[in-house]
Write a structure and sequence with these properties.
Length: about 170
């Protein structure tokens, strides 16, 4: 009887330790390199969208382009704020500028006006949102950190909406 009681105590204690370790792994899993690369690229994406949308608001006279650009500034500013909070949780620093590819593209876009600007801007938005959706789907499928994966999963419907809207604006030009 004494052995059974001792075995029960040991089994309960061992299972509690194992469950505690499993809970810690689920809750406190630090982002791995894949997650960090995703967060970095997502931050660049948000910054690119905001920067180019502000350019569209300054340059375009097309109501559809302007409406789309306003939505990009609002939605990607919110997403960036959420991503900043998430990265702060893990003491991970995100970029605060647009990426080098968009830095190189920006002067070319700035030199355009009217219909040429509008079509170049919206074509870029379609392309960027397609790439961003793939980036987010990869994080959802392969990311290690549950907080980062959940954030990416929650943003996917918005990005898909952005792509559909960009396609619609493109078709209307």
């Amino acid at each position: 009887m004494k052995r059974i009681a001792m075995f029960a105590v040991l089994a309960f204690g061992l299972s509690s330790i194992i469950m505690s370790c499993e809970d810690d792994n689920e809750v406190n899993t630090a982002p791995n390199d894949f997650d960090k690369t995703f967060m970095t690229n997502a931050a660049y994406g948000n910054r690119n969208e905001i920067d180019f949308a502000q350019l569209a608001l300054a340059k375009s006279q097309n109501d559809s382009i302007r409406m789309f650009a306003q939505k990009m500034v609002a939605d990607h500013s919110t997403a960036q704020s959420e991503l900043d909070s998430l990265s702060d949780k893990f003491s991970f620093t995100l970029p605060t500028t647009i990426d080098s590819a968009h830095q190189a593209l920006k002067p070319q876009l700035e030199a355009l006006s009217g219909y040429s600007f509008d079509t170049a801007y919206i074509n870029g938005q379609v392309k960027d949102h397609q790439a961003t959706i793939t980036l987010f789907q990869n994080e959802v499928n392969q990311g290690l950190n549950p907080d980062v994966r959940n954030w990416a999963s929650g943003k996917l419907p918005h990005l898909q909406e952005h792509l559909a809207l960009a396609d619609s604006v493109k078709a209307s030009l």
